[in-house]
Specification:
Elements lengths: L1 H13 L6 H18 L6 H20 L3 H19 L10 E6 L8 E4 L2 H13 L9 H25 L13 H31 L6 H15 L6 H40 L9
Antiparallel strand pairs: 1-2
């Protein structure tokens, strides 16, 4: 399991540097081959493998045909497959548990963290093959914009979460923080931001370029879609994730994918360090 995770983390880190993409490709091949050999892809591994290949092909085709009716169909097909992978509905994946279930505080819902091979594939497909994706606006600018996005997210989301009774003040250094942080930064925030900001928001903004406020409509729609993707955690989480998505969307607009990933990770880090994580468990 740790070998599988280490290969994916190294692939995610190297994927940001184009000159290291051959290394990234080798690490990804090794990671998914190891998963198949270890049984993490399950007996339906051929279905999982076919889904990943289709995802990669669609990302490449979407990048080559970003606009027009054909581009719309291709983007729609990619989005449907990506959402199925995000929701773990494609058979064949057995995502190993990395942490939990553990309650970080007595009043918190138990938390589990898995190495999501299916969800991670979406981020890799977009970062490596989807040409319209804006990776950075320069590393220094992207990190500065991402940090500003974090501040905005904290101001907007955490007081709202307290007011809704979704979380409480609970400073802590939880067990397994280093593993949580590595996984959250390199896979969770990366994959979610690549799909909802680098793909959905940016595509909508491009298609709505001739519409008044088109870029802002795209930002709002992507934020709402991001919120709805958290429906399993309840309506409060849908609202909170939507508001957070607005901050991440601003970070992407002004700093590229690195900025939105950084903002997403830092807000999650503030959440786990300072507040109930993931949510309060109500009687």
């Amino acid at each position: 399991m740790l070998v599988e995770a280490s290969l994916l983390y190294l692939a995610a880190a190297s994927a940001w540097l184009r000159r290291l993409w051959p290394v990234t490709a080798g690490l990804l091949a090794a990671a998914y081959a190891w998963g198949l050999a270890s049984g993490f892809l399950g007996p339906a591994g051929l279905v999982a493998g076919a889904a990943i290949m289709a995802l990669m092909a669609l990302a490449l085709l979407c990048g080559r045909t970003p606009d027009g009716a054909r581009g719309l169909v291709l983007h729609g097909a990619f989005l449907v497959l990506a959402l199925l992978l995000f929701a773990h509905l494609v058979p064949g994946f057995r995502n190993p548990r990395l942490l939990g279930p553990v309650a970080f505080t007595p009043d918190a819902h138990p938390f589990s963290m898995r190495l999501n091979l299916d969800k991670a594939a979406v981020g890799f497909a977009l970062l490596l093959l989807y040409r319209p994706l804006r990776r950075t606006e320069g590393i220094a600018r992207s990190l500065a914009v991402g940090t500003a996005g974090t501040v905005l997210g904290i101001v907007l989301v955490l007081p709202l979460a307290l007011a809704l009774g979704a979380v409480g003040w609970a400073p802590k250094l939880p067990e397994g923080l280093w593993l949580w942080a590595t996984n959250n930064l390199l896979l969770v925030a990366f994959a979610e931001e690549a799909l909802f900001r680098g793909f959905l928001q940016a595509s909508l903004a491009r298609w709505l370029a001739g519409v008044r406020w088109g870029a802002w409509i795209a930002l709002g729609v992507a934020a709402l879609a991001f919120g709805v993707a958290h429906y399993a955690a309840g309506p409060a989480m849908v609202l909170l994730a939507t508001v957070a998505g607005l901050a991440y969307g601003l970070a992407y607009r002004y700093g590229g994918l690195l900025a939105s990933v950084w903002a997403h990770f830092l807000l999650n880090l503030a959440h786990i360090l300072l507040f109930t994580y993931p949510l309060l468990r109500h009687p």
